[in-house]
């Protein structure tokens, strides 16, 4: 399973003392599994926005240390700043980034809140998706009255904290309270215009932003503002939800931009914001020339964008991640003002540790040389996984060629779906190339554990058993994935571009070999298990997968031979 990632964006109430800020950020870097991405201090606000990302439990630990250290170093009774605030760590939102749901992220936010209240004695309110009641969902409502109103707020039963003490003690007077949440990812995104006019840029910004513009009677620019029965200004909403926008002039580039905060990219993703600005600008005689991403973005947001633009071209989305991201960058002009390096702008790539998957980052010659060396790994398991990846890659190629075949224009979506399924299986099989070698190395490490005492012998035996089971599960996964690949391969042999039917046949041979080779690894590793029932069950299930695969291979080859 791919790694789960959460981003954490604590805002601490110190933006002027670099020493205090560094002491707070230093504690983040003591936690394995997290990476500090950004530290943005503001002198006028006397506030620093910190951004780090990592695996969920590690993020909880790092966030706890931030809240603890900020509480030690910052005295809220002496704090002054322009930004609303009520705590040393004022807010601490969690943001799901990869392979984790919002509900799961809320659980981690709640876990942090309970720990902060119990261990640090700091009152905690949960807001946004982590809110414990509808009244607490909005941060502005939770923070109303700010630090100066805490004594009254904490004495009000309706505002009893979700965790921690309810009274305004001497300790709370120093630390204030902390608001902890789970929220969707916020993207700072600018769209470039072929104008220098801030007024015209603002007109486009008002067209798209959720708040829109105030309604005027008569002249839409200079006419009197229309009021409702309560005396409030009536607004004409913009076309994009969860979007804040304004026009400004960037002297460095000599152009005006629409500067946007996309506060929930599950509601308005980047590509929809770009397209909407493009359309609204065009109606005002303005051209969009490109765009600019401020900070980092989740990989899925870029993949969604690339697929969106491919589909608008009636092209298959079943291409590699790299190609999809390239389409997204070019379609939105993200490289107009400067190079767009996915390794620096996409969170998952930024965090990627190439040492965790060295084999799939090798070229063909290096991989073959490594396999042929005296080292026992990579061995048959990794090779089986790679053969399976090659097999489904051939079928995916046939699907993509079919989606572009002259005369088959009305079938591009059909073949795009097959290609996308093939890409998913290919990526999963490529991951198992390194997973199999890791599994073998873990067995070797377990055998190297000490065994001098009875306790050490027991620990060693448990480690060997666990590592051996994992060394069975990985090739078994290769078998399952390669069997699933047979469905795509058969479909492409049957309905795909007839000029590529031999490629589908070769794909079937590869997938069959992957299953049979992986099954050899399953069987050899079951021999060393103490849990014989587990081993016997895996062999039984593996035999069934092998027989199904061999049957499908014969069916596919019959189709291929009939068309040759």
Describe, in short, the structure shown.
The chain is of the alpha+beta class. 52% of the residues lie in helices and 14% in strands.
The CATH homology group name of the largest domain = Formiminotetrahydrofolate cyclodeaminase monomer, up-and-down helical bundle
Q: State which percent range the strand residues make up.
A: 5-15%
Q: How is the quaternary structure best described? A: single chain
Examine the secondary-structure arrangement and name the CATH architecture of the largest domain.
Up-down Bundle
CATH class of the largest domain: Mainly Alpha
Structural features, described:
With 564 residues, the protein is an alpha+beta fold. It folds into three domains: 5-182, Formiminotransferase, N-terminal subdomain (Formiminotransferase-cyclodeaminase, Chain B, domain 1, 2-Layer Sandwich), CATH 3.30.990; 187-351, 2-Layer Sandwich (Alpha-Beta Plaits), CATH 3.30.70.670; 355-563, Formiminotetrahydrofolate cyclodeaminase monomer, up-and-down helical bundle (Four Helix Bundle (Hemerythrin (Met), subunit A)). Helix content is 52%, strand content 14%. It contains 18 helices and 13 strands. It has helices at residues 18-28, 56-73, 102-120, 139-142, 150-154, 170-175, 198-208, 270-283, 299-312, 321-332, 342-345, 347-351, 364-372, 380-403, 412-447, 454-495, 501-526, 532-563; strands spanning 5-8, 11-12, 34-42, 47-54, 89-98, 124-128, 178-182, 187-193, 213-214, 235-236, 243-250, 255-262, 288-294. The strands form three sheets. Strands 1, 2, 3, 4, 5, 6 and 7 form a seven-stranded mixed β-sheet that branches. Strands 11-12-8-13 form a four-stranded antiparallel β-sheet. A hairpin with a 4-residue loop joins β11 and β12. α16 packs parallel to α18 and α17 packs antiparallel against α18 (532-563).
């Amino acid at each position: 399973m791919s790694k789960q990632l959460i981003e954490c964006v604590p805002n601490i109430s110190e933006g002027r003392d670099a020493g205090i800020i560094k002491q707070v950020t230093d504690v983040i870097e003591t936690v394995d599994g997290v990476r500090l991405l950004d530290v943005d201090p503001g002198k006028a606000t006397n506030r620093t926005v910190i951004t780090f990302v990592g695996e969920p439990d590690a993020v909880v630990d790092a966030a706890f240390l931030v809240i603890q250290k900020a509480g030690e170093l910052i005295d809220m009774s002496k704090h002054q700043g322009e930004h609303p605030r009520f705590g040393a760590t004022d807010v601490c939102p969690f943001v799901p980034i990869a392979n984790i749901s919002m509900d799961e992220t809320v659980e981690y936010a709640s876990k942090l809140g309970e720990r902060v209240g119990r261990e640090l004695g700091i009152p905690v309110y949960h807001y946004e998706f982590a809110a414990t009641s509808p009244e607490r969902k909005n941060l502005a409502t939770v923070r109303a009255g700010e630090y100066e109103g805490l004594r009254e707020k904490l004495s009000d039963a309706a505002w009893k904290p979700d965790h921690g003490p309810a009274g305004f003690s001497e300790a709370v007077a120093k630390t204030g309270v902390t608001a902890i949440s789970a929220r969707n990812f916020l993207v700072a995104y600018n769209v470039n215009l072929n104008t220098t006019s801030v007024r015209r840029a603002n007109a486009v910004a008002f067209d798209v932003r959720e708040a829109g513009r105030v309604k005027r009677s008569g002249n839409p620019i200079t006419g009197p503002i229309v009021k409702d029965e309560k005396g409030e200004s009536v607004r004409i909403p913009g076309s994009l939800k969860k979007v804040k926008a304004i026009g400004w002039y960037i002297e460095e580039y000599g152009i005006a931009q629409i500067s946007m905060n996309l506060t929930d990219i599950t509601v308005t993703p980047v590509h929809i914001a770009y397209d909407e600005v493009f359309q609204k600008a065009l109606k005002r005689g303005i051209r969009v020339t490109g765009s600019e991403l401020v900070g980092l973005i989740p990989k899925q947001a870029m993949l969604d964008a690339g697929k969106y633009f491919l589909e608008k071209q009636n092209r298959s989305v079943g291409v590699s991640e790299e190609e999809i991201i390239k389409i997204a960058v070019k379609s939105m002009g993200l490289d107009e003002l400067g190079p767009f390096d996915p390794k620096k702008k996409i969170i998952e790539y930024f965090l990627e540790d190439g040492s965790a998957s060295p084999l799939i980052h090798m070229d063909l010659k290096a991989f073959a040389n490594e396999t042929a060396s005296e080292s026992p790994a990579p061995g048959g398991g990794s090779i089986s996984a790679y053969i399976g990846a090659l097999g489904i890659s051939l079928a995916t190629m046939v699907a993509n060629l079919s989606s572009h075949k002259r005369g088959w224009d009305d079938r591009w979506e059909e073949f795009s779906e097959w290609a996308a399924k093939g890409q998913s299986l290919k990526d999963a099989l490529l991951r198992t190339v390194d997973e199999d070698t890791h599994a073998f190395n873990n067995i070797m490490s377990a055998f190297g554990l000490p065994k001098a005492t009875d306790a050490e012998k027991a620990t060693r035996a448990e480690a060997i058993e666990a590592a051996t089971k994992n060394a069975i599960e990985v090739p078994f996964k290769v078998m399952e994935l390669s069997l699933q690949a047979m469905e795509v391969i058969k479909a492409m042999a049957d309905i795909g571009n007839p000029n590529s039917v031999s490629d589908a046949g070769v794909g079937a041979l590869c997938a069959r070999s992957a299953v049979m080779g992986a099954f050899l690894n399953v069987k050899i590793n079951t021999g060393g298990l103490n849990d014989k029932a587990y081993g016997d069950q895996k062999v039984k299930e593996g035999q069934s997968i092998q027989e199904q695969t061999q049957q499908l291979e014969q069916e596919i080859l019959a189709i291929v031979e009939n068309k040759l």
